[in-house]
Here is the input.
Amino acid sequence: MKLDLAKQGAPISPLIYGQFIEHLGRCIYGGIWAEMLEDRKFYFPITKDYAPYKSLTNTAFPVVGASPWEIIGPAEGVTMVKDGVFVGEHAPQLSRGSGIRQNDLGVIAGKNYTGYIWAAGSRGTANIEVTLVWGDGVNDRSAVKLSLTDSGYTKGNFGFAPKLSTNKACLEIRVLDGVVKLGPPSLMPADNVHGLRADTLALLKQLNAADYRWPGGNFVSGYDWHDGIGDRDRRPPRKNPAWTGVEHNDFGTDEFIAFCREVGAEPLIAVNTGFEGAYSAAQWVEYCNAASSTLAGSWRAKNGSEKPFAVKYWGVGNEMYGQWQLGFMQFKQYTIKHNIVADAMWKVDPAATLIGVGDLDRVNTDYDPDMVKAKQTWSKGMLESSGDKMNVMSEHFYQGRVPWTTDGRVELLQSVTQLKDNIRKKAEGHRALQPTIPALKGKMMPIAMDEWNYWHRDYVYGELGCVYELADGLGVAEGLHEYYRQSDLIQMANYAQTVNVIGAIKTTKTTAEMETTGLMLQLYRAHYGVTPLLIEQPAGSPCDIAAALTKDGKTLTLAVVNPTAAEVTVRPALAGASFGATATRWHVTGPDEFAHNTPGQPRVVDIKRTDGVAIASPLPVPALSATLFVIPLK
Ligand code: AHR
Here is the structure.
């Protein structure tokens, strides 16, 4: 392997180690956010027919599609009323002796749980009892009596420390006296960090993503960001506009910014150019970035942040080329909308980096005859008509056993190249396309691959919650190698998505674990260099090699993906400097290509470190591994 310090590529942007979190499945609620209760704001009416799970019913994480609250006692003791409601369209009203319970909660013995509930009593006092039940024994429960006295809704706090671990705990709320209307309850592990799950957060910190794209995805095209600000308990529950289940609006703009700060990442907010438009988008920029003397800035200040959030990166819409997108429109109309939205956003913050929707190959043959007639692809059209109204162009791709094909498993040597092939195809396509577009005046529009990943159709961890095996991890490592090769053009990439939903991290109700894919992202982010060296791939080998210098130029990082069942060796020869005597080797491997990690169980695939690897000998790259040598230079 010949390496030459003089043959360098453009610096690798740290933003290629970005992530994407969407209000979908168990990514945010059930993954990142620590709330344990489903439908705490009673979006679904509570009825005598307790049957909450409507899809993925044969999995451990079925999707809630009806009220998860079961009536305790006579059904007529609980009615849904529309007057004097705390939040949403209706509230449960409970008479003396009746109650509701939520089943299927996950708790750990000895861990503390903290919660509260809002309630209003008809006679000025709400006497209720809140109980956590963690088993069938008479002592497998802990109850807190609350006497909430005020003219309206009053908040009562409670805490529990269950003595057994179970996924079948339940929270009961019973009325002891009078008639009581309920506002939202909440229950979280007491170790939550500003509402974030501590176990997931620890892994997110290891992942150390450079930026997070939020709130969608398809979700954003139906999202009203105003729903997600202000008093969390008063934010309205809505049906998730794009996916299944309820959007609780517990995780909104302020929580997203706090989340990014907690994990040390840049926020990237995608605005709604589907059902909404310029006014809403510009006001969101104002909420985040303008002084507190502006209207929306004053809301932010009122919500606790006098200082603007200074969000640099903004996505203008999501996949607006697809008829699956809420507010989808034909190209000619969308480009006008994009330009109006971009102008409005820049009027509020001229320094905002705007990412426009692209898709290199998309011609909408079904719904856009003009596009077909013009033989025009979406990215080409957007660059021609909106190229001066964006700073970066977005591209997306997914590969694998996606649900919209019948394709099954492919051989490892084929699957492992799928992501890098897609990345290269996008890059080569843009390199061919962009110089032909006069509006770009010879400049290249940088690309944000702001959704990329394998997507497999078998869902284990809720909606889109597929498992990633070692083969997928190796493919992600090869994908990163391709980003390094395209570092001048692809300046941002957001692995889609972070938790559970096609996620780099998977969670159960009480545990969290890094997937094979997450381990690769973690490894390269932590140890790979920033100045790529241009190298030729070894002829006839299925291995993929990449090399880069660290920022200070004092260390070479050499990465090899070996998708074969045998160890291989690499002998680097360097022009322009010489190697120190030994290297540190990091590698990720597992017993076979199907190996994967499972939350709560010992790791099968992990990152391993070996110090003192002699440079004088051929460097060993274990079978089925992504291996990274960190070699000091002299
Ligand atoms: O990441 C899942 C979905 O895939 C996103 O919501 C959408 O943008 C894409 O089609």
About this structure: Residues 110 and 448 are 45 Å apart (CA to CA).
